[in-house]
Predict the 3D structure of the following.
Amino acid sequence: MVTSGASPFERMLLTGAACMDPDVVTFVGFHWPMVMARVARRLHAPAMTIVYENGIVEDRITPVFPTSPCDLVAADGATMCAGSVDALYMWLGAGRVGMTMLEAAIVDRHGNINTTAVGPYKKPLVRLPGSGGGTELGSMGRGLLLVSASTNSRSYPDCVDYITSPGYLGGRSQRSSLGYKPGTGPQRLVNPLGLFGFNEAGELFPTAVHPGVTVDDVRACFGWPIAVPDTLNVLPEPNADELAIVREELEHARERAYLLPQD
Amino acid sequence: MVTSGASPFERMLLTGAACMDPDVVTFVGFHWPMVMARVARRLHAPAMTIVYENGIVEDRITPVFPTSPCDLVAADGATMCAGSVDALYMWLGAGRVGMTMLEAAIVDRHGNINTTAVGPYKKPLVRLPGSGGGTELGSMGRGLLLVSASTNSRSYPDCVDYITSPGYLGGRSQRSSLGYKPGTGPQRLVNPLGLFGFNEAGELFPTAVHPGVTVDDVRACFGWPIAVPDTLNVLPEPNADELAIVREELEHARERAYLLPQD
Amino acid sequence: MVDKPVLSMRELVERFVPDGQELMIGGFAFSDPTALAHELIRQNRRELYVMKTSGGVLVDMLVGAGLIRRLLSCHVWNSVGPVPAHCFRRSLEGKGGAPFEIEELSYGAFTMGLLAGACDLPFAPTTPLLGTGHFETRTFLPDKLGQVMNPFGSEPVSVVAPIKPELGVFHVHRVDALGNAQMFGPTGEMRYAMAACKRLIVIAEELVDTEVIRARPEATVVPSFMVEAIVVEPWAAHPTDSYGYYLRDLPHNELYGSLSRTPEGFAQYVDEWITQTGNHSGFLAKLGEAELDRLRLRREQW
Amino acid sequence: MVDKPVLSMRELVERFVPDGQELMIGGFAFSDPTALAHELIRQNRRELYVMKTSGGVLVDMLVGAGLIRRLLSCHVWNSVGPVPAHCFRRSLEGKGGAPFEIEELSYGAFTMGLLAGACDLPFAPTTPLLGTGHFETRTFLPDKLGQVMNPFGSEPVSVVAPIKPELGVFHVHRVDALGNAQMFGPTGEMRYAMAACKRLIVIAEELVDTEVIRARPEATVVPSFMVEAIVVEPWAAHPTDSYGYYLRDLPHNELYGSLSRTPEGFAQYVDEWITQTGNHSGFLAKLGEAELDRLRLRREQW
């Protein structure tokens, strides 16, 4: 076993990949979710159906790692090439998608995501790219898994400055009163510490952490006093096969110009 | 000249065909408008763009006469095969179509068309096929030309029992208050007597008749006291070429199972 | 993704279409899965709620055979001639045949209702319809149409309720074992209609390898994950046309139009062409190879 | 139907894109007509109102060169890496570069706004957006989003106003002399976007005979009657990809990302790759045949 060297980032990717169900149609957003999906295909879900916002349906691993869903090597061997009305509404909005994976650069207590602007919208301290289809994933995605590679508390403010992708807004009851569909809203978050869920109020809380991660590590990660259960489940160590595969895929990603955390 | 034998029906087809502009995208509904379009292609508009409700774009005469727009010999050599959102909304509704041709089985004083039911809707005296896309042509078509092969006053009641395709409803002002777009609504009607227009109130009136058609003929055709101008323009006699072509196309139509008036 | 069950037409009707089923049938006067209608008649299904944009001969046969309790459609006729859909007309005029209820939408409103259903939108703006018969007259769908004020303007906007059929059965050109279905030529409202159905079965002219599907991914009109089962039945859309596969059969449409003018003639048609033939192979055998040759299109491979 | 004018990129910008033009630019991180952006920079257009769903490097260059007064987009970044769109970010953070105004919609709302524009509907229901930044924050399009009550239910429905750009310029795969334009692979929102534009120009990888178009009528994304003029410019979408024609150029995206980190580097990129190259042929010559060979796809003929 050469697993002891698994980095928190690699553990995050493997944990996210393990969340993917080979029998569930999965909407994969850009960036780390795409890495997770490739790892999942190689580990346990080779024929999983994945859809992308531009209308691609992918049912097997593509020979080349796409740099984003719109890198059309993602369409190599696709069984369907349609458009965004299909992907965002006929598949995602209509509930044909059972799992949704969305990178969450900045995420708050209620799972609201900001990928637009930190600080005042018209004069931001940090300007981010904007929503793309991320708003749709947050608004309409079933089985929504948020992904963040950060453990910096600036990535987890109490309340985001701009809600690009809606989580539970001010709480579950607010979300449900504003026309959002039942079954939508974030279900889980995966980050380098472990897995998180959302409680009845729609607040983030840890459900399982990687070996060695402490309650203090969890508390330090979030910009609000996060509620931590008395006991935290511990996620399994990656095995050698898992670690080899995630590293191969990360190497492939690097060759495809992905900026990796250690770079 | 062997034109003297032109029947009123043949004159109607030629008059309708003459209304077609080679430079205008034309939405052609089923039946006699399709015959007119073929005649127009052969006479003066060979490369006219014609669109059909199922999404076909046709820019030249098809080798075989389609029995309806959904007889897919209509798609033979099509430059585009799309769908009904394209045809009815992106082309017709959005005003990309400059002329619209719609058969009007039963049409009233204000150009409202009934192709649904004569008598009470739930217990009709005569049940007709229903609207298909005819409602869209009446509601959203620009340059709308109605076509009726009938000169029987039962085909022209004062007020139709069921408005399948809206004309001016109770009059132009009513139509414009109900969300219909400017530039829509019937512009003309062609029948075996000649050509008709719609006055400022949205009422049908004759603008030109075929040689030999009298004011009494016109009055007898309509189920209300139609307003007839003091002088009626007279349409030209078809020439030999026109008559030969309309007869060839009618023969082709007959071979393709069209029921013709003389059959 | 696993292979989908491949059923015979008989199994499709046995397993998926009980009496009373709400059933959207595909096709818009082309790709009408007439072989499905034949099998529904053979198995004598009753009380169906049928949705079909263009009713055509297919719906006329179901009406004539007394299978339909409710119908949602945009028109019903025999477009060859054209001649009326005689059974449909007789029944609605109270001149014989089993009664049924009809509800109607224009083709555009039907399309937009299916789009709203496919996208799970609460409604869709549609063709201006205020003052028309479709808007004023309602039967079993009192909420089929409505109006809202344009929030960006001041005019009334006609809107249509989403249409979400419980079950859809559609004719397509080809399908793979996974259920990826492709069509060529015009598609009318079918892409939206298929996606609007809660459960979907496709009837394909041919079963092809998935690699064939991958070679033309733009032609996939419905992805495998929307398809529950597959029927492979060549000529299933006869006497309507199947783009690239075969032409509309005008003589057969004329034959049907002629016989169905009377209840007796209709009964004769059903007996000869549906009951006695036993299944679609029997139907095709009765039609004869020469007729099929006349209609068959010899396209290049897509 | 008559042949459409075939323009050079230079003529397109000269004749159709004056200063201040409202301009929708096609592409969604693929089929981005970057060669158009180069020419806009060469001709130093100013005060443009640019609409583009996925801004990407193309919009970043226009921002960096100070051409844009207003931008409507759903995101702007360099998806290779990914790295930020540096000029875009600098300008909005007030750290250098010409200022511009930004208005945003989610990709779904943008798509539905374009669908409404294409269909000339007064609005379209869209993604539930109440409470989000897109809904709460407005700049130069205060009426971009609204809400109505569902007339068939009781919940609020988020709706988007129709988007109807004055002029659209889109990259397509092939076009005939009449203007019939075709695309293969995924099309994102582009079919609706093209139809939403009041005037439309296409930039094609190749000009083909109309018979080629007729052989694949399903691939026609815009009919001739919507197209006003044609530019035939192979590699116009480089460094984004053109399905079936060429791959995304990762090294070039990295180069741009690296240089544009500073205003000086961006100026160097513009000088070397845009100004000095003179036109797209010059750009391709600088890129080099070996690079083009590396990116070129050798597909079967469609």
About this structure: The mean pLDDT of chain D is 97. The two ends of chain D are 25 Å apart (CA to CA). Chain D has one domain: 6-105+164-295. Residues 107-119 of chain D form the longest helix (13 residues).
